[in-house]
Each structure stands twice: as structure tokens, then as C-alpha cells.
Amino acid sequence: MRLNAEVLTSYKQIDEALVEGLLKKEIEANHKKIVVLDDDPTGVQTVHDISVYTNWEKDSIEKGFAEENNLFYILTNSRGLTEEQTTRVHKEIAAAVDMVAKEMGKEYLFISRSDSTLRGHFPLETQLLKEAYETNTGKQIDGEILCPFFKEGGRFTIDDVHYVKYGEELVPANETEFAKDKTFGYEAADMRQYVEEKTKGAFKGADVTCISLEDIHNMDFDKIEAQLLAVRGFNKIVVNAVDYVDIKVFCVALYRAMAKGKVFMFRTAAAIVKVLGGVTDQPLLTRKQMIVKETDNGGIIVVGSHTDKTTRQVECLKELEGIEFIELDASLVKDDEAFEKEIQRCVDKEEACIRAGRTVCCYTTRALITADTGDKEDELRLSVKISDAVQSLVGRLGITPSFVIAKGGITSSDVGTKALAVQKANVLGQIKPGIPVWQTGEESKFPLTPYVIFPGNVGEISTLKEAVEVLL
Questions:
Q1: Residues with Cβ < 8 Å from 294, sequence gap 6 or more?
Q2: Global pTM?
């Protein structure tokens, strides 16, 4: 059932100052390092002054554990991996994290940060992390917390149904284009049924624990804590939320339950990471904060995401004067020789524009290209091949752009790790709500260059245009 967005402000007011005081005490009493495994780079869309590591070498994880911050991110890009690949990656990360934690005498917990519209390798990834954690630490994980709430992206969970905001309407996520994803699609509206569907009945909807908005807005910490204390056997917990303060209330009870020995796994969107980590609010970034090396060169925008929202955002961007638009013909992807020529044509044109001081936007054919074999893995491999071509539009550049914007989750991961060769980035903050900016490391292809990671499913139609205007 669709809802009017007015419902978001219809709930009983919460004393946020009181809740924040309680939460601060709980965070200070907890000494576990929060290790966030992010299945694409958009997961840092709520934080600032936090490190992102693009590999899981022991040295990187040691640096993450040594930081004063109580959390750090490891970018897995697993939404662009096959099941076999993500299995290997998660086993490697779990082993490396545990090794470092033992050597440094620290405890840790995992957050599997994924898409706010419920796509990705679930339940595979958290099941892998659970098994590894239990084997490595000897502790049992009692439950898995599902919290897809993400205010900046218009994602809210009400009465156990997850919604996506379109204008003044809240649409159940299962009715959106995201749920029709060729690789990670689903049918259930109710989160309890989503769990049963995704786990193929291994976890029943009837056994899911739901944290209600009523209890949250009544600030019934004891009841919520009791619910968490009762969870056993890796059963799932769904968190309803319409605002950040709801997550803060939940996290007070969560930290109290963990202090009593309960252990949880997390499969969440970006919002709860910010709250659990005690990351403060910060104004949107200015051009001066992002561009530390002035240049006469133009910037580059690469667009891989083919969602309807992205397509409309690109059309709106065309209203800006002085931007050169280049279309990469992705329909050539099945012909290796022709596709290679097409990529090089785009790169040559990009370089000429950037050198002349013009910003360039290179985007893939807006039609969705499919393998048409009926095999989900084939679809994933094809999308990866296209994404690899998109990242090479940055990776092959012989001239340093003034800024880089990548549109789309898998695209932005490939641009960050492959094209820009970033090993460690600092999250400066957000250029627009839900749209993070990395400052690339000294080791990268273009050091200290602002890299804007623009999710395919975030923002209004004008948001891409507005973000570019900030940087010009």
C-alpha cells in the first residue's frame, strides 16, 4: 500500500537531546572497533573524516584498527561480484580482521553496508561473516539487524514495509524499479516476508523480531532491549524508522543489549553506521573544501547507472552550458574489437575537452543491455564488462581533471579502485545529501583530487546538475 509522505511527520515527538546524551554514554562505554564492509563506495554517504580502504591487506586493516575513530570502511564492491567471488572476498576479510584484532587485543563487530533498496548478496554475505566470526572468536552471533532506513535517499521503514519516497508519495520498495534488478530482484513488500523470500525459507517471517515505531517514539528503551535480549539462533531484527532520532533510540537499546553480552550482525544502509559510530552532522561541502589543487583543466563526469532517475538527471545536466556530452555505445559490448574502438574514441574526445578547460560528461547508452541467456551470473558479468569500460574512461586519461564524478554504485567503485587506483581515501563529507566526496590519497592516479561518488538511485532530478555547479 502506498502512503502519503505526510505520515513521516505524524509520529509522537522524541526528546532528541535526551536520547543523544544517553547514546553518547553508551558509545563511550563500548570499545569494539566497527568494521564496515561496503558493497559499493556509496556507503560513506552519511559520514565525514572517516577512512575507506580499498583493499584488505593486513597493513590496511592494522591502520584501520589503529585509528582513533571507532569505525573504518573496507570497500568490497561485492555488488559487482559473482557469488563465488564475494564468498572468497568475505572469507579473506573475516580472516584478516580477526588476525589483526587478536594481535592488537581489540574486539570488533561487522556491519555489512549495502543498498538501501534491499539489493545485493543477502543473505550470503552476512552468513559468511557469521560463520567466520563464530569460528574465529568462539562467540555465537545471536541475531542479524536489518536497517535499510536512509533519510538522505528517501528510504523509510513503516509497519515493517520499506518505502522509497517519490515526491509526496511513499512507494513500497518492491514496487520500484530497484526490486526488478536482474541480479538481486525480489517480490516481498513486508520485510519479514523479504527475509523468508531471500533466505528461501531458512528463516521464517513469523520469527522475525520487529522494532516498532510506536515503541521507538515512546522511547521504551527497556522493551526494545528486552526484544533484542530474546533473539537467538541468528534470527532477524527489522528496525522501523522515519528519522535519524528513531535510529538513535534503537541504538541506545542496542548498545545496552550488547553490554549484556548479546552479539549481533548488521545488514544495513548508511544511516545506522553514522549513528553507531557517533559521527556528527556537518554542512554540505563547498568548492573550496573539495578542490585543494587549482587547475585550468575541466572536470569529468562518468555515468554508468542506467536507472530511470539517473537518465533524467543526465538530461537535466544538459541544461548547464559549457559541458561536453559524449555517449559510449554500450550496445557494442558483445563485439570486443568494436567496443575497444568505441572506448578509445570517447577517451580521445574527453582529453581534448579537459585540456581545453571544458568539463565533459561521458555516459553509457541509456537502454539496459542484457545477456538474454536466462543466467543471472551472465547478466552480472555483462554489467561488469560495461562498468570496466566506463572506469577506463577515467583510467586511460593522460591529463589530470579538476574533479571526477562517477554516477552509479558499481561504476563508482571501479573508478575509485581501478581507474584512480585509490588504496586509502578520506571521506571529506557530502556535496549534496547522500552523495559523498572522497579526497584521493597520494598513491592514487590523481592525488588529492575530489572524487564525487553519486549513487544511481539518490537525489532529485536536478541534483546532479546542482552538484556539478558547486564544482565549476
A1: none
A2: 0.89
| Domain co-membership, 62 together with 153 | yes
Q: Which domain holds residue 440?
A: 287-471
Q: Are residues 250 and 331 in the same domain?
A: no
- How many domains does the chain contain in total? 2
Distance (Å, rounded) from C-alpha 145 to C-alpha 125? 13
- In the block, cell 570499545 appears at 31
Among 225, 249, 276, the domain-final residue is 276
Higher pLDDT: 205 or 183? It is: 205
Q: Verify that 299 and 270 share a domain, yes or no.
A: no
The residues, any chain, with a CB within 8 Å of residue 447's CB and separated by 6 or more, are: 440, 441
d(Cα 114, Cα 22) in Å, to the nearest integer?
28
C-alpha cell at 275: 549513528
Q: What is the pLDDT of residue 56?
A: 97
The length of the chain is: 472
Read off the pLDDT of residues 317-337 as tens digits, 9 standing for 90 and up: 999 998 999 999 888 888 889
**Do 119 and 158 have their domain in common?**
yes
Rounded CA separation 452/139 (Å): 39
- Read off the CATH number of the domain in which 419 is found: 3.40.980.20
**pLDDT above 90 (res 109):** yes
Q: Is 98 exposed, middle or buried (0-12, 13-18, 19+ CB in 10 A)?
A: middle
Query: Residues 78, 162: one domain?
Result: yes
The answer to whether the CB of 70 falls within 8 A of the CB of 29 is: no
Q: Residue 163 — pLDDT band, cuts 50, 70, 90?
A: very high
- Bond preceding residue 433 cis, omega within 30 of 0: no
Cell digits of residue 183: 541480479
CB atoms within 10 A of CB 464: 29
